[in-house]
Design brief:
Layout (H helix, E strand, L loop, with lengths): L1 H8 L6 H27 L17 H14 L3 H8 L6 H7 L8 H4 L6 H13 L1 H11 L3 H12 L8 E2 H11 L4 H17 L8 E2 L12 H7 L15 H14 L9 E5 L5 H8 L8 H8 L13 E6 L8 E6 L1 H9 L3 H15 L1
Antiparallel strand pairs: 1-2, 3-5, 4-5
Helix pairs in contact: 1-2, 7-9, 7-17, 8-13, 9-13, 9-17, 10-11, 11-12, 16-17
Bound molecules: calcium ion (CA).
């Protein structure tokens, strides 16, 4: 762009008006180009920090935060000062937050989780913990295959709980991720509460860059609300107790209305045959259609949903190697329950398809 303007400058004077016009337009384009670039860069939280910079505990943000922790939750000021002093921003956390894993097409998404090795391992774990799952299914009314699928996806059956210092990640997101700072402020409070109650050193826990931890990858607020003790030692241990981990996942699904042995999804073809279904599909996980309409429009025999529930419409991208396009499924209330664990329909479908693979 700059060299083109240069060429015009050495043209004869009689073209001066054109030259000016072209120069003006080029400059304008250049400015638009530069400002668009800046805007895109500027929207990334990671660009506003340097890695390992200290969080500013003397800022208004932290002052107010400490005040609330003292007033509402009875923490001591000197303890807070001591705990937060020296905490540094982890820039990697911000970079990862701005990557959208779930924007991958489904044909690239599910193979990240569902592999022959994972299916074999899941089946083995189901066998190994058969008696424990008998008890959990009976008490919580949640199918064991779904508990194991979530466990498998969240932490590779407990082998990968995340390598980020959780306290640092939560502080980074509270201090330097404006888009969701309020959310992570609450999670940081919940984290401090759970550490205090369970006698855990806040600096000792590792987790994901997004603040989840343990084998079920609960956020601190989810831990406080849904984690249960199921091995009888009166502690909720989602890092090393199988019983607590499985029962806590079950309890979470139960609290969001899981129906034991209920349908989860149904295939409805490669095309949506009416706008009403297309509109629901466009609404994402919150779109709903009466099951009778779905059955009639798509000409399918569908099992009626549990509890008079409605269906969501999900489109899953198929690999171009197999002709591309989409495969559509109707999501039942149990699938909606899984999206309470993670809001992505792709996540819920990966859980459902892994669970189905365990049953084969
Ligand atoms: Ca326990």
């Amino acid at each position: 762009m700059i060299s083109i303007s240069g060429d015009f400058i050495i043209n004869p004077p009689r073209h001066s008006q054109i030259i000016l016009q072209v120069l003006f337009q080029s400059t304008l384009l250049l400015l638009v180009w530069i400002s668009t670039g800046l805007a895109q860069e500027g929207s990334k939280a990671a660009d506003h920090v340097t890695d390992k910079q200290l969080i500013d505990i003397n800022s208004t943000r932290y002052h107010q935060f400490f005040q609330e922790l003292q007033d509402k939750h009875h923490f001591k000021e000197e303890d807070l000062q001591h705990l937060f002093e020296g905490v540094r921003i982890n820039r990697k956390v911000l970079e990862l937050m701005d990557r959208q894993w779930e924007s991958k097409p489904y044909y690239k998404y599910w193979p990240l989780f569902i592999t022959p090795a994972v299916i074999a391992k899941g089946k083995e774990e189901l066998k190994k913990h058969r008696l424990l799952f008998d008890k959990i299914e009976k008490q919580f009314g949640v199918d064991r295959e779904f508990i194991v699928a979530i466990w498998g996806i969240e932490s590779r059956f407990g082998t990968n709980m995340g390598g980020f210092a959780l306290f640092q990640a939560l502080n980074t997101l509270f201090d330097a991720y404006p888009r969701r700072s309020e959310f992570f402020r609450k999670e940081l409070i919940q984290y401090l509460l759970l550490c205090r109650e369970n006698n855990i050193d806040p600096l000792s826990v590792k987790g994901s860059y997004a603040g989840a931890f343990g084998q079920a990858q609960f956020m601190p607020s989810s831990f406080n609300e849904y984690a249960v003790d199921f091995d009888g030692d009166s502690r909720r241990d989602l890092i090393s107790s199988d019983a607590d981990i499985f029962a806590s996942i079950a309890n979470y699904l139960k609290k969001f209305n899981w129906v034991l042995h209920g349908p989860v999804f149904a295939e409805i073809g490669n095309k949506l045959k009416a706008d009403i279904l297309y509109d629901a599909y466009k609404k994402g996980r919150k779109g709903r259609v009466n099951w009778r309409i779905v059955a009639e429009v798509q000409d399918r025999n569908l099992v009626p949903p549990q509890n008079n529930g409605q269906l969501s419409i999900i489109g899953l991208e198929k690999s171009p190697l197999f002709g591309g396009g989409k495969r559509f499924v109707a999501g039942y209330p149990n699938l909606h329950t899984i999206t309470e664990y993670n809001h992505s329909n792709k996540y819920a479908m990966a859980v459902a398809e892994m669970a189905a693979a365990f049953k084969k």
